[in-house]
Every structure is written in C-alpha cells, then in structure tokens.
Design goal:
By secondary structure, the protein is of the alpha/beta class. It has 14 helices and 19 strands. The structure holds S-adenosyl-L-homocysteine, thymidine-5'-phosphate (TMP) and zinc ion (ZN).
Length: 406
C-alpha cells in the first residue's frame, strides 16, 4: 500500500489511468520507440484530505534544460501575474527595502513586475532554459530546486523574505515537507506566503481530470493545505478563488498568529464540506464522471471521422496528454495539434504521437472542428479566433461537458 506524502496514512487509488507518458514529454517522431512511462493513479487521504498521485517520475525527468512550458506564451497570464504582483506590493509588502522570493519563477512572468518596481527579488527556477529567459531580462534567478536546505542558504546569504510567492508549482512537489519547512525558515516573522494552484473543488465540479498528470503531484483544497502548513507553525489567513487554469485557488499563509484570519477561510472550508471533498464517495463518483466523459468524447470524434470531417487539436498542453492517452485519441481522429511554442513544434504528442504543428498551419487551412485542448485559455483564444468561427469552424470542448460550440 502507498503512503500519503503528507501524513503517511495508507491510501488506495480511486482512479487508475494505467501507464502514462510525461505530460510535457513532447518527442521527436524518431524517438517514439523508447518513450518513458509510469503508472498514473490518484488517491485521497482520508486522514489529512490530500488528493495525490501515488507514483511519480523523478523530478529531473520533468524539470530540466529543455523544459517545454514557457509561462509567457499567454498574454492573459502575463496580465494575471501583473495584477498578482500589484496585490503583493500594495497590500502585503512593508515599506523600506522588502525582499521577495518566488519559487518556480519560470521565464520571469511574475518577477518582472517586481524588477520594474525596483524591488529586491530572487527567482528559484531549476529548468535552465526557461530560467535563462528571466535572467536575460535582468531578473535575479537561482537555477536550483527549492528545499529546506536551499532556504537556509538563502537566509545566510541574502536574509529572510517579506513575501514568498509560487504559482502552479507548489502542487508539483512531492517532497512537500522540505518545501513547507523551507518556507517557515525563509519567511520573516511578519512575512507572507502567497501561492496558487489548480483547485480540487473545480476539478471535481467540472470533471476536469486533465489536471491530473505527472507534474501535478497534488490537487489542493483549503482543508488539505491548512493541515500541511499547520505542521510548520503557519496558518492559512485568506483564500481567493482565481479563474486561471480552469479554476485555481490563491492561498495566503503567515506564521501562526502573525496576521488576522479572513472569514473567507472558514466559508471556503464549509463549501468544501458541502462539495463532499472529505468523503471517499465523491472521488468514486468523479471516476464514473471521467469514464462517461471519455465515452462521449470518443463517440463524437468517431462520428466526425465517419462523416469525413477534419479535426485539429488547439494547444499542445500538458493536460492534453491525459486526455489523448486516457481516451485513446489517435492521429487518425485528430490530424495534428496546433501550438505556438517553438520547442513543441515538429514533435509528436506524448504517448498518442499526434504531430504538433505551428499555429500557421491551423490558420492557413482551417479544419471543420478544433478540439480545444487549451480550454483554460478559452477566453483569450475565442477572442483571437473569431475568423475561424466566422468561416464555419466549430469548437469541441470537454470541460465541464463534451459539447460542440459553433
Ligand atoms: N510560475 C509559472 C511556472 C509554472 S510551471 C506559472 O505559473 O506560469 C512550474 C515551474 O516550477 C517550472 O518552471 C519548474 O521548473 C519549476 N519547479 C519545479 N520544481 C521546483 C522546485 N522544487 N523549486 C523551484 N521551482 C521548481
Ligand atoms: P497551458 O495550458 O499549460 O498554459 O499550456 C498552453 C499551451 O497552449 C502552450 O503550449 C501554448 C499553447 N497556446 C497556443 O498554442 N495558442 C494560444 O493562443 C494559447 C493561449 C496557448
Ligand atoms: Zn494524509
């Protein structure tokens, strides 16, 4: 039996996706013979409430010198992180000369705002290719994995932090105890931690099972995050739902007693109770919902093929790896996936081996249907793609339900 990564209680899986490739493991067609795979199963810990992968590839397989995800590819995300940074500066940073640390700073999409404001900052980003983009913008960056040990070194060399920020990375890290301990060491007594990740409540409500892939060790809730940080003398003082990545939660955390606790925390925990997030039956139902979503999507794609329609994927997201492999979508059902990221183009998608082509190929010869794999960016994409719709093109979506938008 596997043990909970947070509290070491034995847990059993509620969903088993079988053998899966890496979500961001885009590969050259000639490499497709020896693709790495691992067993993707998800469990719920009845003791501490944490939803988690039971097995995960080594971190060096996921985060390295050729990491495929550049945060800056989405204009909306750049605006989102600008607003995030402004909230930190306006509401949380003391006057004087504050120090801001960000874990998983990627290409500097958040820290560029602190740099522009002349605020002392440090990014911690182990994937060297994306970190280089940030360093080229003049953003101070350490190309290492954050841990308790690194926190001690930063304190010794640069002092404690007023704010510790993280977006879409806390939930990636199985050695979460070292991270929480590191934060408690690095953070000033009056400091604030703010991080956001895809929210378990949204995943359950929308059956957005594509949030489950190798990098997403955890699906957090306010309950499970509170349990985790309480072990390190900290507490959740506010929670703020976000629309990014299909529904995320921003957690504001401080040393226990250092800051007033907003009533939002208790309200959201009550909502989580009502959603059934602490009951195993909720996860059994989620599995059935995933199965039925898969059946519907495959029936639709097969019908369209039988009718001779062209279907192209839009956005070679890491999430789409879960969809294509779990559903069994093959290149004869989806001709190619259009993506604007150069490092993904000319490759094939992990496991399903659907070709990834530059966006221009989509625009040059519109398909009948576009399967919206980047559904979390749908507002931005729908705005951009008016011409596709006007020319008679239709969107296929699968969150919260399989549907055609036209
Ligand atoms: N914050 C950005 C990037 C998220 S992708 C955004 O929200 O768009 C997650 C990033 O975290 C990757 O760039 C990865 O290299 C980095 N990462 C993974 N483990 C880490 C760790 N232990 N410490 C710091 N960064 C880490
Ligand atoms: P994400 O869902 O992990 O943010 O990844 C989004 C992917 O979709 C990324 O590879 C870039 C791609 N993309 C496009 O190709 N076109 C777009 O308009 C947007 C917003 C993203
Ligand atoms: Zn647990």
């Amino acid at each position: 039996m596997k043990l909970c990564l947070v509290c070491a209680t034995g847990i059993t899986p509620f969903i088993d996706f079988g053998s899966m490739p890496l979500g961001n493991g885009f590969l050259l067609p000639e490499q497709s013979g020896d693709e790495y795979r691992y067993r993707m199963q998800v469990g719920f810990c009845p003791e501490c409430g944490m939803v988690q992968l039971l097995e995960q590839p080594d971190r060096e397989r996921m985060f390295h010198d050729n990491y495929a995800f550049f945060s800056g590819t989405s204009r909306f995300m750049a605006l989102h992180f600008q607003a995030f940074a402004e909230q930190v500066m306006n509401d949380f940073l003391p006057s004087g000369a504050p120090f801001v640390v960000e874990m998983g700073s990627n290409d500097g999409i958040m820290l560029q705002n602190f740099k522009a404001a002349g605020i002392r900052h440090l990014g911690i980003e182990p994937s060297k290719n994306v970190a280089q983009v940030a360093m080229d913008k003049g953003i101070s960056t350490l190309t290492e994995f954050f841990s308790a040990e690194l926190a001690r070194r930063i304190v010794a060399e640069q002092g404690q932090a007023d704010a510790f920020l993280a977006a879409n990375v806390m939930c990636h890290i199985p050695y979460i105890h070292s991270i929480a301990e590191g934060i408690s060491i690095l953070l000033k007594p009056s400091g604030v931690v703010m991080f956001e990740d895809p929210y378990l409540g949204d995943v359950i409500e929308k059956t957005s099972y594509d949030q489950i892939y190798d990098e997403h060790t955890f699906l957090f809730s306010v309950g499970s995050v509170s349990n985790l940080f309480e072990r390190y003398g900290m507490e959740v003082v506010d929670v703020q739902p976000q629309s990014t990545h299909g529904g995320s939660m921003r957690y504001v955390i401080a040393h226990r007693g250092a800051r007033p606790v907003s009533p939002n925390v208790a309200t959201q925990r009550m909502r989580e109770e009502r959603m059934g997030l602490s009951r195993p039956e909720t996860y059994e139902q989620f599995r059935r919902n995933c199965e039925s979503s898969r059946t519907q999507l495959m029936a639709l794609l097969r019908d369209l093929k039988a009718d001779g329609k062209r279907v192209v994927g839009y956005g070679a997201t890491s999430k789409s790896t879960t969809i294509t492999n779990y559903c069994g979508i093959t290149p004869d059902l989806v001709e190619f996936i259009s993506d604007t990221t150069p490092i993904k183009q000319g490759k094939v998608s992990p496991g399903a081996h659907i070709p990834v082509r530059p966006y221009e190929e989509f625009a040059r010869n519109y398909p009948d249907y576009a399967l919206l794999f980047a559904w979390n960016h749908s507002r931005e994409i729908m705005e951009k793609e008016e011409a596709f719709r006007k020319s008679g093109g239709k969107w296929i979506v699968y969150v919260p339900e399989v549907a055609i938008l036209g």
